[in-house]
Design brief:
With about 220 residues, the protein is an alpha+beta fold. It has one helix and eleven strands, in the order αβββββββββββ. The mean pLDDT is about 85.
Length: about 220
């Protein structure tokens, strides 16, 4: 004979308990999924920020180590110490110092560096020698993905340096979009610019600009 104290759950009570458990489980999963998604987005953002900062750091290092040493390309043709722009072979090509040599190889501490944009990837090419031969192959390093545009401007001399009216920002309208050797004067040595502006248009971060004064400024 059963008693009132030992009465079991009714079907309605069991269904209500199951429904409450299901609602709580859905809420807990949704909250956990939101936290995990936010963590993944944060990690991706941090990784992207690191990649962008690393690319700018390498570009800055190369330009800060610039030296006015012309070179010869693999065809034996002279290349200015710095050249670039849409009309140049590479958007930016320069000679830099500070090429570390921890193994003590018998080579120069100067290095030729090219920057180029290919399929929305920014590449950095380096060469084992300054004056290249026909079989000299570059070492290419991928610097940054999702780069839609690489654009440069060059300041020829300090007398052309101006600021925009009513602000402290630089007026870049009189900066050259190309820095290439004058084909009408073969054999003439082209002096490097005194400053370079680099613009990167990134698919996710938008437009980024940096202005560099070249040594010995």
């Amino acid at each position: 004979m059963s008693t009132e104290g030992s009465r079991g759950f009714t079907l309605v009570e069991v269904l209500i308990a199951l429904a409450i458990t299901a609602v709580v489980s859905v809420m807990a999963y949704t909250g956990l999924s939101t936290v995990m998604t936010a963590a993944e987005v944060l990690r991706a953002s941090e990784a992207r920020s690191y990649e962008i900062n690393r690319a700018w750091m390498i570009i800055s290092r190369d330009l800060n180590e610039f030296v006015p040493r012309p070179v010869r390309d693999e065809f034996g043709e002279p290349e200015p110490a710095l050249t670039g722009g849409e009309l140049a072979r590479f958007p930016l090509s320069l000679t830099r110092a500070g090429w570390h040599n921890p193994a003590g190889y018998p080579r120069s501490n100067l290095q030729r560096v090219n920057y180029r944009l290919e399929d929305e990837v920014l590449w950095r090419d380096t060469y084992p020698v300054l004056d290249r031969a026909g079989d000299t192959e570059p070492r290419s390093t991928e610097l940054l993905e999702d780069v839609e545009l690489l654009q440069l401007r060059f300041l020829g001399d300090l007398e052309a340096l101006q600021t925009a009216t009513g602000s402290g920002t630089l007026d870049l309208r009189n900066w050259a979009e190309n820095w290439v050797a004058d084909g009408s004067q073969p054999g003439a040595v082209q002096a490097p610019p005194v400053a370079v502006e680099i613009l990167l248009q990134l698919r996710d971060w938008g437009e980024m600009r940096r202005v560099y004064a070249l040594p010995p400024l």
